[in-house]
Design a protein that fits this description.
The protein has 81 residues and is an all-alpha fold. The protein has five helices and no strands.
C-alpha cells in the first residue's frame, strides 16, 4: 500500500495512526474482531468456520484476541446473544 501511495511504510503508518487513531494492523485486527462478534450473533457456524471467515487460521488464536479485546470468550459472547 505504501508503494502505491509513494511513501515509505513508516510514513504510511504514522499518517494512518494520525487520522484513524490506530496502526493499520490494529485497525485490521479490530475489524476482524467486530466481524467475529457479528457472526457469533447472526450465525450458528462453528468457531473454526468463523475463524477462517475473518482471516484467522486457528480458532484458539482468534478466541485469545477476542477475550483480550472484549473480556469474554467467544463461547460466552454467543451464549449472551
Amino acid at each position: 500500500m505504501a508503494k502505491r501511495l509513494y511513501v515509505c511504510e513508516r510514513t504510511l503508518i504514522r499518517r494512518f495512526h494520525k487520522h484513524v487513531g490506530l496502526s493499520p494492523s490494529a485497525y485490521v485486527r479490530l475489524a476482524r474482531l467486530e466481524k467475529t462478534k457479528f457472526l457469533l450473533r447472526s450465525t450458528t457456524d462453528n468457531f473454526d468456520i468463523i475463524s477462517a471467515h475473518v482471516g484467522y487460521q486457528d480458532a484458539n488464536a482468534l478466541n485469545k484476541q477476542f477475550k483480550a479485546q472484549y473480556g469474554t470468550s467467544m463461547v460466552q459472547w454467543r451464549r449472551i446473544g
